[in-house]
Amino acid sequence: MQIDGASPALYNEDLAPAQDRRWGAFSIFNVWTSDVHSLWGYYLAASLFLLCGNFWNFLLAIGAGSLVIYWLMTLVGVAGVRTGVPFPVLARSSFGTFGANIPALIRGLVACFWYGAQTAAASGALVALLIRSPGMLEFHQTSHMLGHSTLEVICYVLVWAAQLLIIQRGMETVRRFQDWAGPAVWLMMLVLAVYLIVKSGKFSFGSEIPQDVLIAATRDAGITTPPGSLPTLMAVAATWITYFAALYLNFCDFSRYATSERSLRIGNLWGLPVNLLAFCLVAGVTTTAAFHVYGEVLLHPDQISAKFDSWFLALLAALTFVVATLGINVVANFVSAAFDFSNAAPRAIDFKRGGLIAAGIALVLYPWAPWETGATRFVNFIGSTMGPIFGIMMVDYYLIRRTQLNVPDLYREGGEFRFNGGFHGKAFVALFVGMVFSSILPTFTTLLPSWWGLYGWFFGVLIGGASYWLMRRGDPVWSDGVPGVTPAGAARH
Known about the structure:
Layout: H1 25-36, H2 39-52, H3 55-83, H4 87-90, H5 92-95, H6 101-130, H7 134-142, E1 144-145, E2 148-149, H8 150-167, H9 171-200, H10 211-217, H11 230-242, H12 245-250, H13 252-255, H14 261-294, H15 301-305, H16 311-344, H17 351-365, H18 375-383, H19 386-400, H20 425-444, H21 456-472
Antiparallel strand pairs: 1-2
C-alpha cells in the first residue's frame, strides 16, 4: 500500500499497512503452536506443571495465566488487525517516528540472541541423535572447530540454513510452514507421550514424585517456595505470563495479516488458553511417565530421547525438536528482527535483508555461544524493558487515542508523530521510570523484596503505562479517526 507523502526514511513495502490478508483462525492458532512447542517451552511447561503439585492446582495456575496471555495478546493483536502495521511502526505512535527505533532495536537485539540459542538447542537434538552411531560419536569427540565439535558446527549451520530458506520466501511461506508444522509437532508429541505412558504402565499427574526431588529438579525455574503452595501457584502463573513478554510487543507483526478480528479472536482462543493448557498437560504427563520409566526427573525432552532404545523413536523425537524450534524461531525471533532492522533503515533494508542481518548475527555469535554464559543475564535484563514498552504502547493506543490512529502520519516525518525531532520525550521518561522498577532495582540492588523479580514485567507494564498516561493527560491528540486499513467486517471505533 502506498502512503501519500510517506518519507523514504520511514517507509517501504514491507513496513506498509498489510493488504494481502490470508491468515485465518487456523493460521493464527498455529502461530501459537509454533511459538510454544520448543525445547525451552517444553522445559518451562514441564517445570511449572510439576511445581503445581496436582492436577487441580495446574488448572488453576496455568489456566489463569493462559487466560491473561489470551487477553493481552488480543489487545495487541486487535491493534495489528485494525491498523495493518508491524510493531516498530505501531511504536511510532507513542515513541515518535524515529524514537520507535530504540524499542524496536531492543526487541531485535533480544530476538537475535535467542535466535542463536534456539538454533543451538535444535542442533543439539540432531547431535544427540547422530552420536548414537559409534563412528559419529568418535567424530564428535575428536574433531573440533570454533570452540565446538565439528559435528555441532555442521548441525548448527544446517538448522540455521533451513530457517533462512523459510523466511526468505516471505510471510506467506511462514504461514504455510506454520500450518504444517504446528499439527505435525502436536502429533509427534502425543506419540512420544503415549509411548512413555505405555512403557511406564501408569498414567499420572506428577503427585507420586517426592517433593525433595521436585524441588531439586525445578530449582532453575526460579521458584523457591514449596510445590503446590499458594505463593508457588501465583509465581507459576506470573512466570507463564512473562514467558511471552517478547510476543506481546510484536504479535501485531502477524495479526496484521489476519482476515478479520473474529479470526484473530478464534485463533487466539484455541491457540492460547486451550493449546497452552493441553501443551503443559502433555509435557507434565510425559515428564512424570519418564520418571516412572527411568527413575529420574528429565525436564529437557532431548534428555528423554537420549534414553530411547529405539532408533526410530529417537529419530522421531529429534525431528520433533527441530521442527518445533524452527517454528518458534521464525515466530518469536526471525520475523520480529526482520521488521525491527528494516524499520531502522527502510531505504536500505527490506524484510528479507533484515532477516539476513538477524541470521548473520546469530551465526557470528555461535563460536562464543553467549547463551551458555552470563550473557543470558544481560539479555534478560534488556528484555525486561519490554514490560514498560508494552504498557506505554497499549495506553497510547487504547486510553489516549481510543483506537483512533492516524495511520498515514506514522510514515510522515512532519506529521502528528514527529514530536521533538521524531522523538517523544514523555514516552522515554515513562520507559525509564518503568525500567527502574522492572529491571534496574531488582537486578542491581537489594532495595526490593526477593519476590519482586518474578513480577518485574508486570510492574514494568503498570508503572511505565501509568507514568505515560499521567504525563499525557491534557495533551492535544489528533482524534478525527482515520482507522487506516480496516478489513471488511472489523469494527470501527
